[in-house]
Amino acid sequence: MGPSEWLSMVMVSVGVFFFIAGSVGLIRLPDVLTRLHALTKADNVGLGFIVLGLSLQAGSLLELMKLLLLWPLALLASSCACYLVAEATLLQSRRGPGARRHVR
Amino acid sequence: MSGDTLVLDLVLAGLLVFLAWRLLTLSDLFKATVLFIVFGVLLSLAWVRLNAPDVALAEAAIGAGVTGALVLDALRRLDARGPADEAQPLRLNLPRLVGALLVMGLGAFLLWSVLSLPPGWRGLSSETAAAMPRSGVVNPVTASLLNFRGYDTLLEIAVLMLAVLGVWTLNAEPMPPAEPAGPILDVLVKALLPPMVVVAGYLLWAGGHAPGGAFQGAAVLAAGGILLHLARPFNVANRGVVRLVIGFGFAVFLLVGLTLATLGGRFLELPERHAGILILMIETAAMISIALTFVVLFVGNARDNAGRDTS
Amino acid sequence: MTPPIIYASAGAAVLCLGLFGFLAARHVLRRILALNVMGSGVFMMLVALAARTDPPDPIPHALVLTGIVVAVCVTALALALLTRMCRDEGSALLPEDRDIE
Description:
heterotrimer; A: mainly alpha; 3 helices; disordered C terminus; B: mainly alpha; 72% helix
């Protein structure tokens, strides 16, 4: 294995570590907002590391660009989804515990 | 096959069975629906592991994406009119017990037939490989869908139109007023819609030589449409233009088949020289129609008739 | 144990779970979910058994692609029927299930 492959492996491992941390947070933390916090932050960093690690192994420029496109798209989608889930939680808590769960 | 990927396969397959069991037994239907979406996403990973990238793309976009959106939307509308939960757990009475035993018997039979299949069986892969040079494309799945099994795909597009008709007919329900979506969803739509259109076009084009094709492209396009509808509710009424676009793919496919039949060939038998361009033509028309069909299946479900323009 | 055998067995299990859920569940939405799960089990068996050759047999892949699209149509139509029934009759259970409490 060359140095770039080693570096790639280290980065992917770091990324996996962040994913595991995020998942532990999702399972262990008490409520929706803290879970969101753990999940989005850790997973975004984890995905970034995995994409960077894999891009070191990309065979062509096109492949590299496709890989690097992944991260900002996932960042955008996950931060928006996070906001929407948090907003729904907030609306639900304002309506009180007896209100319906499914806010848009 | 090395040991580490075997572990991955075992874990993935086990997770799929576990999720299927949980989503059918959880009393909370909302949680069950979320697990159903997770099931779809993991299933598309399984397709990748099984060397079926075309199916993986379709599963992620259609199986998990569009179906998940449809079920969540239906759940919201059921919930608006009373608890949707299935509060009491299922009691195991006699009919259920008999059913369970019969289903277990079926499972054992299936398992036995899987394990006793002859090892060297090659299916239709050799026949397909031999016919590939005459198909006009390089991707064998696209060749099977649009050329070798054109009939199936033609009728599949007809089924899509039938589903739209059914949804339009049944959908006469007054909706609770939609809450205005926040600015964030608007930003997401503005940022994601243009790349989604590009990706759909790319998938359509790539379908000739790589994983992709009309259905995957249409699913991405439809996801964009559904997202847009969530951010800024719009109306796809049962009007002439909409009907025309929905029927467009079927019409082009049928027309190509009929033209070939009148020119001396057989119905839907694509001539070798023009197969590539004919497939691209059919796929482009089909993608536009299928995308609008998915959007209508979602939106047509969600709109009330009072909001429809009188035509 | 090869991947095709693993996924085909899991597919058989998923199929059976879905079938039993479809027969036993009372809420129609769960029945619709179960129908989808059952279909996924069939797809798993088809694609898994197609993966025994290299390259895999493309015909089952095309069949499953068709199946996925038809499944989403069926789901959309079934959900429309369900919401219509719910609106007209005020229950998400089939008539024969309603009186059994």
